[in-house]
Write a structure and sequence with these properties.
162 residues; alpha+beta; five-stranded antiparallel β-sheet; 4 helices; 10 strands; 23% helix; globular
Length: 162
Amino acid sequence: MLKEIGYQREAALRYAKQWAMGRNPRYLDFEHLGGDCTNYASQCIYAGSGVMNYTPVTGWYYNSASDRTPSWTGVQYLYNFLVGNKSVGPYAAETGESGAVPGDIVQLGNSNGFYHSPVIVAVDGGRIYVAAHSYDAYMRPLDSYIYEKARFLHIQGVRNWQ
């Protein structure tokens, strides 16, 4: 039976801070293979969830560079997994900027689609601050990025088999 186990935002935020300006050797650095931003975002989410979804192709997991799902490293695939997940692992709902809280994900895009997945690490005075890879950042103001559109993914919870 699936049971709600909760998303540990503080654990996700601790991980985000620890690895924002470096690379965890457990994971391949995708910096020169299309970008590392969603890989880093997934690592942060995993630090807060502790559960991967091993459904082939459409799940969300990372065992190695050659044994992972597209959702672990791909912007659109991560979105599809989080908002569509009805099974094991983290799940999210798209929200407006005012509904975003630390531990959530924001995805930035343009007319060609979404291309960047920073992790929200603080909201202060209505201003959002993020951590990200590819262009490594910690506590970078979201409004310092140049983008045409943004979507905010509020991590609602995590499910696991009990």
